[in-house]
Amino acid sequence: MKRATWLTSGVALAALVSLAPVASAQSPSNEDLLARIEKLEAQNAALMSRLDRMLDEDDIERVPASDGPELATDTLVNRTGFVGTDAAYGFDVLDAAEYVNKKPIVQLKARAEDRLATPLTVSGSIIGIANYQDSNRDSKFGYLMRNPTSANQIGDHVSEALIHSAQLGFTANFSDWLTGYAEILYNPQQNFASGTITSLDRNQLVMQRAYLMLGNLERSPLFAVIGKVDTPFGLNDTVSPFTNSTSWHSFAGLAYGAQVGYVDENLMVRAMAIQGGAQFRAANAPVEGTVVPSRVNNFAVDANYTFHLNDADWVMLGASYEHGSPYCQSYPVFHFNPCGDNNPAWAAYAHTQLGAFELLGEFAETTEEWPGSAVPIPTNPLSVYEAQKTRSWTVGGRYGFGDFLLSDKRTNYVSLEFSQFRAGDDGAPWERQNQFVLGYSRYLIDNVNLFAEAIHVDGFAPLNFLSGGNFPDGSTWADNDAKTDVILVGAHTAF
Fold it and tell me: Which one-letter DSSP state was computed for residue 180?
């Protein structure tokens, strides 16, 4: 805006210069006065035209998204004053489907590209959905994009039209090296509060992520993060437009801790020291037999390498290890209960872009059996099922194309993904839960995605009381033969 100020001052100065002879002349003729006024108007119009062009070029820009699907349209970027916006960045940093545990990397790259040029960048996202769900078991719906409880899903079919989630993100540039981030989330369907989705407890705003990051990719490939941040374990992305894979539900972590990393064009290595106890998601390392997070006694490490085949195509391979996974409780299983000992987990994954096709796959498994996956009650006939290692895996693909297949600019995507969560012995009611998702996306612009999905879920295996304990006889509400079918449409918008 400095140049705009100078140009505005220039307009005023031109007026003074043009009128000065008029003020000093003794008897100017009407013709001379009119000529001078016309000259002033022409100079003013020329200067204002130049000002408009410079504002268009410098302050309000249209730039393509740095990552993600190749789209046909650009996104509006506001880089004026103290507060700015970048719609493509806002979509990426708040998206729960892609770059799931790589939000700090998204921010470092955006800063390196000078896309977060203002001291504060404000981002926002709203996802609205409507769906119809059908189950072959009364009040048992295995679709995991909401907490499946009988308090919210009654009968053998349910329908919804609501806001699934709304977010606000604040990215602060404290210096060339120091970035701050805070994210506020509203998600009545997926939080752990009691009651229905209309209860006040489930309609609260929470600080979903908040951290400080030290890093500058223009000067060093090293970075460090401290705060409430996603743990570097697995891929956990999905090719579906909305529905997360069961791998995400099983192992994607969010925790207090400190993370350090290295990232360049090909190699990414990250390690995180995680606060103990049962964390917000998918991490649990007991502290003297409790869940009190009074020690940093858990950690996760991840490394991946990207092979660039050409300017557009690439193949990425990676692996991860976590010292304390969430699958360590004994019977009866409850997510935030303490564990007798930690249960480590490992993961391997691959992700590739080949022309219009995107493919991904991952596998994660604990190194030890989950004690709570067996029932230790001798009088209960379900005790014949032995404890098992917990595992999850995902495979999916997405194809992008232009409108009517006549354009190279991809605005439409068709996807298919299968994922499985396996928690119990063969034949156990909590043996596994499979999910199939057929999806379609239509990007109106790169920060507005209209989508539709058809979902089929085999099995009902909720984490809490997985193998029983919430009924008087100790039996389980898990059901290996339960089936859920979902038809869903929605819109994902961001700025």
Answer: E
DSSP class of 43: H
Neighbours of 295 (CB within 10 A): 13
Strand ranges in 328-380 using DSSP code E only, listed in sequence order? 345-354, 357-369
Contact 435, 245 (CB under 8 A): yes
Average pLDDT over residues 451-470: 94
Residue labelled with tokens 């880089």: 79
**Euclidean distance between CA atoms 58 and 3, whole angstroms:** 10
Crossing angle for the helix pair 103-112 and 87-94, to the nearest 10 degrees: 160
442 sits in which H/E element? strand 432-445
Question: CA 443, 446, 449, 454 torsion: positive or negative?
Answer: positive
pLDDT band at 336 (very low <50, low <70, confident <90, very high): confident
Q: How many CB atoms lie within 10 A of CB 180?
A: 15
> Does residue 355 have a pLDDT over 50?
yes
CA 27/CA 318 separation, integer angstroms: 85
Average pLDDT for 424-451: 96
Which pLDDT value is given to residue 73?
A: 43
Residues 122-140 have a mean pLDDT of 96
Please give the distance of CA 306 from its chain centroid, rounded to a whole number.
21
Question: Taking Cα atoms as reference points, which of 22, 47, 49 lies closest to residue 34?
Answer: 22
